[in-house]
Amino acid sequence: MDIVNPQINEYVLAHSSPADDLLRELAAETRAATGDSAGMQISHDEGEFLTMLVRLVGAKRAVEVGVFTGYSSICIARGLPADGHLLACDVSEEWTSVARRYWDRAGVADRIELRIAPATETLRALPTDQVIDFAFIDADKVGYPVYYEELVSRLRPGGLIVLDNVLRGGRVLDPAFDHEADIAMRKMNETIVRDERVDAVMLPVRDGVTLARKR
Ligand SMILES: C[S@@+](CC[C@H](N)C(=O)[O-])C[C@H]1O[C@@H](n2cnc3c(N)ncnc32)[C@H](O)[C@@H]1O
User: Fold this and answer.
1) Which InterPro entries match (predicted)?
2) Distance of CA 70 from the midpoint of ligand 1 (Å)
3) What ipTM was predicted for this assembly?
4) Alpha-carbon distances, residue 167 vs 93, 99, 109, 142 (angstroms)
């Protein structure tokens, strides 16, 4: 199911600040190098959205779960101040080797710390008093509840967690879709809307994005 009419998506893209040449080159290299997996990359308009959110929150300390070839991490890092820090979590040396090259070229490598390990391990190992201003979750869907909990407990008041793919192509609507990722996402969405620690807004941006802001 298309969440948004494809023509509307094109129009949205055409009327958002355009991605620069570097991000377009990264998208093209990702398509050439990873084939069908390239569909995991966020879209240009979602990237601009992330940069704007990071700036609006005034974030300095950010976390990303799910780096792939680095598109969203560049967008997040560009929204941070020069002394900002992005902890980037992924399990793939291969995909993140592309990301490292583009972080260098984007001039943001000095603000990104990459940890190659299951994100559950990385996040659980963070000090409990570590303060996070902004987080983006875009990795294995079954892991979302753990990632959300580890991040929300460290989020400062006014801090923001952004979760991607919360609509799963519309499959969250129908329990007949019983893939573990669809089940996990339904549970995640129910948890967030009942979580009294945050105000939550779910938006039909691409495959669905939830913004959870700590009270
Ligand atoms: C949807 S892609 C991320 C796309 C990325 N945000 C972008 O804009 O290009 C999901 C990523 O999550 C990573 N991943 C999968 N399972 C993971 C886990 N348990 N811990 C950390 N990363 C994981 C994959 O290696 C993959 O790079």
Assistant:
1) Cation-dep_OMT, SAM-dependent_MTases_sf, SAM_O-MeTrfase
2) 10
3) 0.99
4) 28, 26, 32, 14
